[in-house]
Amino acid sequence: MLAVFSLILWRKTYISHMKKIALLASLLIISTVVRAQQIKWAKDTLLTWNDFKGTPDSKIPHQAYTHCVVSYSFHCVRHNDVYTLTFAIKSGFDKNTSWCIDGKQTAPLLKHEQLHLDIHELYVRKLYASLSQYTYTGNYDEEAKAIFRRVLKEVQATQDLYDTESDHSRNKEKQLEWETKIRGQLDNTPLYPAS
Questions:
Q1: Which among 84, 66, 68, 181 is positioned nearest to 131, based on CA atoms?
Q2: % of the chain exceeding 90 in pLDDT
Q3: Model pTM score
Q4: Which of 99, 117, 143, 155 might form a disulfide with 123, Cβ 3.0–4.6 angstroms?
Q5: How far apart are CA 89 and CA 160, in angstroms?
């Protein structure tokens, strides 16, 4: 009886482990597919119209749309009521939700969309700096979320101001001003560690 029970228990454990392995393999495949659909910002890598694979949204009154994503994770160590958090940030341009209306793919509009990605990158660096420099308490999870929300509001306000001032690339003088300003800020803002 004991041998049969052990075999049943081993079989349940084996099946349980196999389910976990299958789940992890599925997550790895999904993660790999998601990464393939995203472009991580790089100074020497520029967007092309082939990167915009999404379906245009008729509710958005623009000729193109750049969708960027950011997420963070952290590891916390507590020593004598001092909380030290180490952050990892993932960020990129999402190909499947970024789009352009057919026939509207111009070089000036592509430069405009590239700068949306550059602005996103600038604020991801600011996010990393803000998260890493903060002095955390026992409420560190909520404190990190508050920083994340604040920086997201800041980047959205900057993106909106950029669109307004440059008139979505049509105001060439303002477009050039924004390109110069953001590239200068990128050059002077430290990178965050690759994750």
A1: 84
A2: 76
A3: 0.81
A4: 155
A5: 23
